[in-house]
């Protein structure tokens, strides 16, 4: 048992009054598990990740713990990767990957070989001296992945990391992420609004309701790996989950349109 969320709610205080983003979220993620969250826009997916990352505080009476210890704030055991990752533009690729190791005061002579090893893992060795603006979106996300993994976190938190990529690049990165996960066996919590992407990656797919986000249903995905987005059974499973998700998307559309 690794990550446990119990009765996690989150209310944002805003100038227009409180916004309840999450309500009574309960789930548990085992060590090495790959769990995907899907839900319509605004349902609180990023908020869940930010709470696990320790960047947002949940409401009182919520509990979030990792290996039995309450999460009180950010820590090096959890790394968050965003849609457009915040790599350092003033550092080249290898220095971006080395950055976290240097912050951790990792022994100097081990920094370069380890960074090289993780760059190889994401197939970017040739670009070690390039600057971030010289890379494509897919390459940037691979640097972000190497930079996150090199510091050996317990858990990777990924917030729609592939959603700005074209279809072919996304498919390649989905394969790469599956390969890497099968080698390093990290716990990954992955948020997306793309069902096929969730089914492609997850041991489980958890569907959130429209705002306030609650857990609507959970699906265990037993398909063999590696999985491809076009696999027949993956598409069938995605269609099954789509029914649930569509209800929630329709709610959001009705709410946003109001009486118009
Ligand atoms: N810092 C904040 N202050 C006020 N309200 C916020 C804040 N962050 C999020 N919210 C609100 O909380 C709700 C959930 O937001 P969140 O960003 O978690 O949704 P999401 O599921 O990640 O959406 P998307 O799919 O568009 O990324 C939304 O109603 C949003 O407006
Ligand atoms: Mg989000």
From TrEMBL:
Pfam families: ABC_tran
Tree of life domain: Bacteria
UniProt signal peptide: none
Domain named ABC transporter: residues: 3-235
Molecular function as annotated in GO: ATP binding; ATP hydrolysis activity
PANTHER family from the UniProt entry: ALIPHATIC SULFONATES IMPORT ATP-BINDING PROTEIN SSUB (PTHR42788:SF13), TAURINE IMPORT ATP-BINDING PROTEIN-RELATED (PTHR42788)
Annotated protein name in UniProt: Nitrate/sulfonate/bicarbonate ABC transporter ATP-binding protein
